[in-house]
Amino acid sequence: MALQLVHGIELSLVQPVINATGVLLHTNLGRAPLAPRHFLLEGNDPSGFRSTTLEFELASGSRGSRHTGVATLISELTGAEDAVVVNNNAAAVLLVLAATSQERDVAISRGESVEIGGGFRIPEVLEQSGARLVDVGTTNRTRVSDYANAIAKKGNDIATIMRVHPSNFHIDGFTEQAPLGELAGLGVPVISDIGSGLIDANCPWLPGAPPQWLSQEPAARQALEEGAALVTFSGDKLLGGPQCGIIAGRADLVAACKRHPLMRALRPGSHVLIALQHVLLSFAARTAVHDIPFWSMATAPLNDIRQRAERLAHDTGAQVVSSTAVPGAGSTPGAEIESFAVSLRGDHTAQLRRHRVPVVARTENSATLLDLRSVSPADDAELGVALRQLSEKS
Ligand SMILES: *Cc1c(COP(=O)(O)O)cnc(C)c1O
User: Fold this and answer.
1) Is the CB of 234 under 6 A from ligand 1?
2) Which CATH code of 3.40.640.10, 1.20.1730.10, 3.40.190.150, 3.90.226.10 fits the domain covering 39-44+52-291?
3) Which of 148, 262, 267, 276 has the most crowded CB, counting CB atoms within 10 A?
4) DSSP letter (8 states) at residue 206
5) Domains 7-32+294-393 and 39-44+52-291 share a fold
């Protein structure tokens, strides 16, 4: 097997791990986990190989576009006129700015000129796109009139207004943000980088009402309804899909993105599109809670998690403790989801990482905690093996 041929570098290869950290979208562990079937084309024989219709139209037998199928699904789910997919949301923002605002001005609130994750800084991305930044308002308060003044100001050439969701922090207190609907009335297209990829605030794919921890998250469908000309978001945060970035909204602006020379450099390959297609179809079929790992982890009844923890503790001599899981991926700052963990005295995280299926756990008050909300129930037995091996060694 390949892993043996490259003896010595096994630990540095990308490989599956069990995420027992309780951070559902763990940035270091690939954000949204997917199942192997998400990368398979239905009907493809796993022992053989087949090509795909990536750029081929079955109906006519002629060349097609890789964007058509997923764009139809995204439009259906968000109400957008059209959509296009790129490699990540940073690429989506870069492409949108380059296609709509190159050599022109973009108005951004001083409160939204943010840095997100490692090195995604709005002023720097803007500079790379060839657009010019025009700061409006203040860090804590920006009004519609601030944008209107920037548009009217002599010497400015405002092509677009950009809104950025400050995904990984929030400011409290004396703050004011201009309503999207009013910005949309100022006569220039509003681009809203919503970041986390919640496609609809009403979560029609959930059996009940949207959970409390989602209440502060902007959603694609509602942003477009309020008047955003384009929204951009990640595929591997709250959407629960593969790493990609999605641009959705006005057909003429999406067409401008597709025509831009950067498109070719930023376009996704078939594996990403296949996985994204599976995920979007699950939202459309309202089976997301069963089919998309992030949504099944996030909505698993607390009682089920407790029972799994009790079973595991019973089999291994560990203790059951209540725990707090988080959505993660720099989205929903402060949001918490109740959970249960099994706890062992001492720090065993290094040994757990060397289990045959590496287990990533966290430590708290000199105990090792394995939070079961971020673990697939199919891996409970493997966790049992890992924990029993620890107690044999100690
Ligand atoms: C996460 C995030 C990004 C970066 O997205 P990637 O998919 O990691 O490139 C950009 N903008 C916002 C608002 C985000 O939350």
Assistant:
1) yes
2) 3.40.640.10
3) 276
4) S
5) no
Question: Exposed e or buried b for every residue in 123-137, given b needs 16+ CB within 10 A?
Answer: eebbeebebbbbebb
Instruction: Please give the distance, rounded to the nearest whole angstrom, from the Cα atom of residue 196 to the centre of ligand 1.
Output: 7
Domain-wise residue ranges, the chain: 7-32+294-393, 39-44+52-291
Percent of the chain surpassing pLDDT 70: 98
Using the mean position of ligand 1's atoms as its centre, give its distance from the Cα of residue 234 in Å: 6
167 lines ligand 1 (CB under 6 A): yes
Burial class of 362 by CB neighbour count within 10 A (0 to 12, 13 to 18, 19+): middle
Percent of the chain whose predicted confidence (pLDDT) is above 90: 82
Pocket flag, ligand 1, residue 330 (CB < 6 Å): yes
Q: Whose CA is nearest to atom 12 of ligand 1?
A: 195
> Is residue 177 within 6 Å of ligand 1 at its C-beta?
no
CA 115 – ligand 1 centroid, Å = 10
Note the pTM of the prediction, 2 decimals.
0.95
Residue nearest (by alpha carbon) to ligand 1 atom 14: 195
- Nearest-atom number in ligand 1 for the CA of 168 is 15
Backbone angles phi, psi at 229, to 5 degrees: -80, -35
Query: Which tens digit of pLDDT belongs to each residue from 243-291?
Result: 999 999 999 999 999 999 999 999 999 999 999 999 999 999 999 999 9
Between the CA of residue 134 and those of 29, 137, 297, 335, what are the distances in Å? 36, 10, 41, 32
Q: Cβ(89) to ligand 1 under 6 A?
A: yes
Chain segment 12-69, per-residue pLDDT in tens: 889 999 999 999 999 999 999 999 888 887 777 778 888 999 999 999 999 999 999 9
* 31 strand-pairing partners: 26
CATH class of 7-32+294-393: alpha beta
CA dihedral over 70, 75, 78, 80, signed as positive or negative = positive
Using one digit for the tens of pLDDT, what is the confidence trace for 311-339?
A: 999 999 999 999 999 999 877 777 899 99
Q: Strand 367-371 to strand 337-345: parallel, antiparallel, or no bridges (unpaired)?
A: antiparallel
**Pocket residue to mutate for ligand 1, from 116, 233, 272, most atoms within 8 A of Cβ:** 116
